[in-house]
Amino acid sequence: LLLYRWLRVANKKPTNFPPGPEYSVPFLGDYGWMLVINASHLHKAAIKLGDFYRTKILGISLSRFPSIVVNDLAVAREVLNRREFDGRPDLYLARLRDKRFNRRGIFFTDGPAWKEQRWFILRYLRDFGFGRRFPEHEAEVNSELLSLIDLLRDGPKYAHEHTIMKDGYVKCPNVMFSCFANSFLQIVSGERFPREECDVLFNAGSNAMLFQRNGDDYGTILSFYPWMRHIYPFSRRFNTLREASLRINEFIQSIIEKYLQTHDPNHVRCFLDLYFKQMEKCTPQEESFTFQLDQLVLGVVDFFFPAISGATTQMALLFERLLHSPHVVERMQQEIDDVVGNGRLPTLDDRPQLPFTEATLREGMRIDTLVPSGIAHRVQEDTTLQGYDLPKDTLVLIGMDAMHNQKEYWGDPECFRPDRFLDANGKLCLAKDLSLPFGAGKRLCAGETFARNLMFLTLAALMQNFNLRQRPSDRLPDLTKRITGVIISPRDYWLRFEPR
Ligand code: HEM
């Protein structure tokens, strides 16, 4: 009876909290119900629970954290644009990314230090071409795409390339790791890895995918009970996540240290030099953070990591979709042939004349929502939402996949239909694109413009030059068999880019 009473008190929801399960699973809270309903795809479990309680704002307890899942586009937009919701919870999944288990970086920090770091990084990356039109950077991306096209057309040249290309078929999403990573590193350090040295980028990409696939959108059970990392099989998962993270950090740190050793405050070569100058003005802190080396490492990782694993996975999801829709490929190719021809690669100047290609990318991001539950937010002070009371520190998950599939907004959300974003004259109509794949408000994805530009250029270049072919023995991909981790990803698959 005492245990029963303790569990009831421990799992008690705050008063006037959004509807959700009344009785929680001992020890796990409603996270337990979600594991029972759909352990592999927690965002789908949240949709089922929401439907059961007939609510678009589901109130649950994740172990001791009161939490809500917002499964409605209009409410999500409101949440993302209100300052009280801009916090991030202190999740163990985030801490294990740092060598000393400190909260570092941009993704999982909040408060004035997050604001300061986010502002500085975005402000000064911009000077080197991040998130805006910048001819020097566009030329570097063009070279990177030509190198990718060479690999796809002429086959592997270097030993490491044989691991991602066999008998003319390339492994997806891995084949895009070097192009996307180099396009970002060029902005940070002013340099790209030459093709013969790209094995380090392929390794970093594989580690990033390990983290993406072994994490989950709710922070994994390790975030609620970190001590479980000592118990098998949780210890195995912990080790995978930890080792993958530390290997990526070491890689970024090795680049940073190379520049630090030759840093001259009077001669700025790249973004890193500007950050080093700022570091010289600050005293390093242990628990909180300012401009210091471990913060710079995680700060850069937080950009490098989604560039190498997130944007490439979004492309891999799209290629699978396109295998099911050859007519969409044909329409993109026709459009690109008419506007660009085949004498040069498509550029960002061509983009307004390639509305169907742009619409295909947008539709891909809607139907295959990369981050199905967003990145958890935290309520920073007691507040209300749609008449419910939310106490400080409530966790807020945005059901991005749910809202991109709401019938009331999309009509036929299950159909892959790029035309939904075009007007009667075939022009792109942004007012019709209600999707929010990058979030919104102050926590908006810091890499949105970079990602949109690079994905557009990659898609247009590949469609201009290739047809997509599967191995003769392969069936069309089963789009329901995807992996839900921190992001949704396809299982690795092999594809031939057949020259047109
Ligand atoms: C298809 C590609 C991508 C998608 C769909 C995506 C989506 C998202 C989403 C949903 C968030 C969380 C927003 C929130 O908290 O409400 C986020 C955050 C973030 N993204 Fe992206 N992202 C992508 C690519 C990138 C790239 C390429 C970069 C960097 C080069 C990047 C950098 C970041 C950063 C730094 C944050 C954390 C922002 C903060 O908490 O202040 N993302 N992204």
TrEMBL record:
Binding site for heme: 445
Bilayer topology term: Peripheral membrane protein
PROSITE patterns xref list: CYTOCHROME_P450 (PS00086)
GO cellular component: endoplasmic reticulum membrane
UniProt keyword annotations, A-Z: Endoplasmic reticulum, Heme, Iron, Membrane, Metal-binding, Microsome, Monooxygenase, Oxidoreductase, Signal
GO MF annotation terms: heme binding; iron ion binding; oxidoreductase activity, acting on paired donors, with incorporation or reduction of molecular oxygen, reduced flavin or flavoprotein as one donor, and incorporation of one atom of oxygen; steroid hydroxylase activity
Compartment list: Endoplasmic reticulum membrane; Microsome membrane
Cofactor requirement: heme
Chief site of localization: endoplasmic reticulum
Single biological process term from Gene Ontology: xenobiotic metabolic process
Family: Belongs to the cytochrome P450 family.
Functional summary from the UniProt entry: May be involved in the metabolism of insect hormones and in the breakdown of synthetic insecticides.
Protein name: Cytochrome P450
Species name: Anopheles atroparvus
Lineage: Eukaryota, Metazoa, Ecdysozoa, Arthropoda, Hexapoda
